[in-house]
C-alpha cells in the first residue's frame, strides 16, 4: 500500500464568517456580557506567569473578596463553570463514607447529592417542594439525625426562583460540627451576601450570571474551618484538577511562590477582572438595589398582565406560571421572533409549566424589563387570539 494519506476537505461551514446575532438574554443565565467585559477579551494574550497577569490575578482575588464579603485568604476562581465548583466542593470537603445533609428545593440540591454519592459518600436529602425554602428547625433536625460533615443549601435556586435565607444556618451547622456549603451560582452579585457574617464555609458562584462575564470561571471561597477540614483529611483528595490546596497555591493565596497547577484561562481572568471592576466602581449596595428595583418593576408588570408568579423575593430569577390554555413555547417563540428576547421555560421536568425571567448583572436595567413586559404582553394576546 502506497503511503500517501490524502487530506480531507475542510468543512465548508467554517469557510463562512462567524455570525452570532444579538439577543437579549432574559433567562436564568447566561446573561449578556457587559461591553467592558467583552472588550477585555480582546487585550493581548499573556502567559499566566507574566508579572502583569499575576497582578491581575491579585486584583481578581481582592475583587472576589469584596463580592463575597469575606476576608478568606482562599478566595479564587476555579477554571470551570458552576458544576465544576460544585464538584470541587464535594471532592475537597468530603472523604469516602462521610455524610452530607443536602437541602433540595429544586434541581441543584439533587445534582449536589449525586456528586456526593459518586464520591462514595452518603447524601441525606431533605426535600422542599418547588417554590419553598428551608427553615432552621428542619435543618437542625437533619443535623441531629444524620450528623453530617457538611450541609448544602442553594442561596438562589434558579430552577424554582427561590432565595434561601442564610442567616443563622452557618452558626447552627458549627454547633453540630458541620460545615455550611452554599451554591450561589445564580445569585452571586445580584443580592446581598455576607460570607463571613453569615458563617459560610464554602460558597461558590459562576461568572455568566449576575457577573455578566462569559461562562468559564467559578469564584469560590473557603473559610479557615473548611481549610482545616481539608488539611486534616486522612485520604488524599480524589481529583487533580479540583484540588483546592493546589489551586489556592496556583493563585498565590498563602503568599508563597506560586505553584504550577494548570494553564490559567488568562483571557477569562481579564474579563472577570473587568466584571469585578464594575462592582467596585458602582458599589455592591447599588448593584443589589438595581436588581431589587428591576424585580419590583417586573413583578408589578406581571401582576398587571394578570400573570401568576412565585412571590419569594428572588431579585435574580422570577418564575412565572404558564396560564391554562397558553402555550409556553409559543410565547417564548414570539418574544424571540419579534424582539430577539430569550424568555426560556423551566428546567426539564417543568419546561412548559413556567417561564423563568432572569434579572442578572448588565441586564438589570429598567429598559430591559419594560421591553420584556411589552414582548410578554403582545405575545400573550397573539397566542390567546390564535387559540380562540
Ligand atoms: N447551581 C445553580 C443554582 C445554577 O443555576 C447552575 C446553572 N444554571 C449551576 C449550579 C451549574 O452551573 P453551570 O451551568 O455554570 O455549570
Automatic annotation (TrEMBL):
Pfam families membership: Aminotran_5
Listed cofactors: pyridoxal 5'-phosphate
Catalytic reaction list: glyoxylate + L-alanine = glycine + pyruvate
Domain Aminotransferase class V: 45-364
EC number(s) from the headed UniProt entry: 2.6.1.44
Binding site for substrate: 356
Entry keywords, A to Z: Aminotransferase, Pyridoxal phosphate, Transferase
Record-given protein name: Alanine--glyoxylate aminotransferase
Source species: Candidula unifasciata
Amino acid at each position: 500500500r502506497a503511503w500517501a494519506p490524502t487530506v480531507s476537505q475542510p468543512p465548508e461551514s467554517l469557510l463562512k464568517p462567524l455570525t452570532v446575532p444579538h439577543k437579549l438574554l432574559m433567562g436564568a443565565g447566561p446573561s449578556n456580557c457587559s461591553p467592558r467585559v467583552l472588550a477585555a477579551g480582546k487585550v493581548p494574550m499573556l502567559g499566566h506567569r507574566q508579572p502583569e497577569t499575576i497582578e491581575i490575578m491579585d486584583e481578581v482575588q481582592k475583587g472576589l473578596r469584596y463580592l463575597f464579603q469575606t476576608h478568606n485568604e482562599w478566595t479564587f476562581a476555579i477554571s470551570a463553570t458552576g458544576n465544576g465548583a460544585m464538584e470541587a466542593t464535594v471532592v475537597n470537603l468530603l472523604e469516602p463514607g462521610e455524610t452530607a445533609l443536602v437541602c433540595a428545593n429544586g434541581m441543584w440540591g439533587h445534582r449536589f447529592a449525586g456528586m456526593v454519592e459518586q464520591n462514595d459518600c452518603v447524601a441525606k436529602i431533605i426535600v422542599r417542594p418547588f417554590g419553598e425554602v428551608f427553615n432552621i428547625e428542619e435543618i437542625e433536625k437533619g443535623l441531629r439525625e444524620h450528623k453530617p460533615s457538611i450541609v448544602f443549601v442553594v442561596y438562589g435556586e434558579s430552577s424554582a426562583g427561590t432565595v434561601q435565607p442564610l442567616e443563622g444556618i452557618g452558626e447552627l451547622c458549627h454547633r453540630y460540627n458541620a460545615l455550611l456549603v452554599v451554591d450561589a451560582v445564580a445569585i452571586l452579585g445580584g443580592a446581598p451576601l455576607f460570607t463571613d457574617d453569615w458563617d459560610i464555609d464554602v460558597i461558590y458562584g459562576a461568572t455568566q450570571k449576575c457577573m455578566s462575564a462569559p461562562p468559564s470561571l467559578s469564584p469560590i471561597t473557603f473559610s479557615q474551618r473548611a481549610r482545616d477540614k481539608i488539611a486534616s483529611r486522612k485520604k488524599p483528595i480524589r481529583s487533580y484538577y479540583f484540588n483546592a490546596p493546589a489551586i489556592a497555591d496556583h493563585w498565590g493565596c498563602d503568599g508563597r511562590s506560586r505553584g504550577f497547577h494548570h494553564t490559567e484561562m488568562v483571557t477569562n481572568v481579564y474579563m472577570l477582572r473587568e466584571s469585578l471592576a464594575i462592582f467596585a466602581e458602582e458599589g455592591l449596595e447599588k448593584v443589589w438595589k438595581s436588581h431589587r428595583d428591576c424585580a419590583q418593576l417586573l413583578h408589578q408588570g406581571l401582576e398587571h398582565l394578570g400573570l401568576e408568579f412565585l412571590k419569594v423575593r428572588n431579585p435574580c430569577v422570577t418564575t412565572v406560571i404558564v396560564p391554562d390554555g397558553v402555550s409556553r413555547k409559543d410565547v417564548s417563540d414570539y418574544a424571540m421572533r419579534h424582539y430577539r428576547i430569550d424568555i426560556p421555560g423551566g428546567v426539564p421536568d417543568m419546561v412548559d409549566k413556567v417561564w423563568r425571567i432572569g434579572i442578572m448583572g448588565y441586564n438589570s436595567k429598567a429598559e430591559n424589563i419594560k421591553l420584556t413586559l411589552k414582548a410578554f404582553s403582545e405575545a400573550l394576546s397573539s397566542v390567546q387570539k390564535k387559540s380562540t
